[in-house]
Amino acid sequence: MNENGDLSPCWQWDRHLPALGHTAVDFERRVDHDRLRKYRLARAKQALANSDCGALLLFDVNNIRYVSGTKIGEWERDKMCRFALLAGDSEPYVWDFGSAAVHHRVYCDWLDPAHCRAGVVGMRGTIPPSFGLMKRYAEEIADLLKQAGVAGMPVGVDYAETAMFRELEAAGINVVDGQQVMLDAREIKNCDEIHLLNQAASMVDGTYHMIYEELKPGVRESDIVAMANKMLYEMGSDDVEAINAISGERCNPHPHNFTDRYFRPGDQAFFDILQSYQGYRTCYYRTFNIGRATPVQQDAYVKCREWLDAAIELIRPGVGTDEVASAWPEAQEFGFPDELSAFGLQFGHGLGLALHERPIISRVCSIENPMEIKTGMVFALETYCPAADGFSAARIEEEVVVTDRGREVISLFPAENLPIANRY
C-alpha cells in the first residue's frame, strides 16, 4: 500500500475485510483518517489533471467532503450554502457557513487556515441574487483561478443554482460539467473507505436481526422505521437517510416509502436501510414473511434470489456493466411495460459518500453505454420479483467489494432463503 493508502497488489484480499469497531486503539490498525483524506484529495487532483478543466468548483456536499474532509451536519445536505474550490495543484478552498469556517481553522489542521473562508451564496434562492453575494464570490473565484495559473481554462462545476451559473459566466469563467470528473475520482475506494463501508453494513446486519424479531401483527411499518432509526443512531450512525418499509398489498408495485400500515399474518414485507457511518452509506434490502408464506411468495423470493446471484457471480475486475445488466430479465418479463418504468428494480449502484456513485448498472443505460468493473469499486446489487398473487413481491440487495480476483459480499444478514419471522 502506498503513502496515499491506495489499493495495490499487497492488499490482502485473501483475508476478510475489516469491520473493527468505532473507536481507535493502539493495538490494531483501523481507519487512518489522515491517510483517508490524503488519498481522496490525491484522487481528486489526479482526476482534475486528467480532465480538460483547470479547476473544480463544488457545491455537492459529498464532493466538498471528499476533497476537504469537512462536514457540518446533515442539515446542510440540501441547502446549497457551502462550496469549495480545487484549482490546479493548489490546496482546496472551502467557503463555509458562518462560524463553521472559524471552527475549521482551529480543528482541521490538514487545511490551510487561510483557505477556510466564511461564505454563503443563495441557500436555494432564499438570499436573492440581487443582494450580490453570488457576484461577489464569482469574482473572488475568478481571482483565485488567476492566482493558481488556470484562468481561461474551463471550470468544472458539479451543480449550482442557476443564478450562480450566470454570475460565474459574467465573471469570465467557462463553466463545464465537473460532476463526471469527481465521479472519476470517487469510483475506486481505498482501504479506509472500504473499512467504513463494511462497518456501516455491519450496523445494518444488527438492525435486520432486530427487525426479524419485531415483525408481528399489531406492529406498523412506521414502528419498524422508528425502532431502526433509534438503533442505528445508538450504534453510531451519523445519518439515517431513509428506511423503506413495505408490506402486504403495498409490495407491488414498489412505492419506495413507508406508511402506518399494520403487518398482518402472511404478509410479505421488504425493507431498505439507507444510513451512513462517518459519511459512508448503505443500501441494503431484505425481504421477510410474517408468520407464514404461500407457495407463490416463496417462488417470487427464489426467482429474485436467482437473479441476484447471477449478477453477483459475474462480478470481477474487467467485466462490463452490460454483461451484468444482461443477466437480469427484461422489464416485460416481470410485469412492466418498458425499462424506464422498471428502472431501479433490477439495479446496481456504487456506494461511498453518496448513495449513488459509479458504477450504475441497469438495462436502461448499461447495455449501450457500459463501464468496466474495477478492483476497489464498492456497489450494491438489488433485484425485485413480483409474486403471482398480484400484490406480494420479493426484494433483495447485497453490497459487494470488487477484489483483485472477484468480489466479497459485505451485507451479511442471511438471505439465501426467505426468512419467516415469528413462524406459526
Give your account of this protein's structure.
With 424 residues, the chain is an alpha+beta fold. The chain contains ten helices and 16 strands. The longest helix is centred in the middle third of the chain and has 24 residues, at 191-214.
Short synopsis of the structure:
The chain is α+β, with helices and mostly antiparallel strands and 424 residues long. Helices cover 31% and strands 20% of the residues.
**N to C succession of SSEs:** HEHEEHEHEHEHHHEEEEHHEEEEEE
Major sheet summary line: 6 strands, mixed
Class inferred from helices and paired strands:
alpha+beta
Number of helices: 10
Q: What is the radius of gyration?
A: 23 Å
Task: Give the proportion of residues in helices.
Answer: 25-40%
Average of per-residue pLDDT values: 94
Give the overall form.
Answer: globular
Terminal Cα separation, in Å? 53 Å
The portion of residues forming beta strands comes to: 15-25%
Biggest sheet strand order reads 4-3-2-1-5-6
Q: Low-confidence parts, pLDDT < 50 over ≥5 residues?
A: none
Number of strands: 16
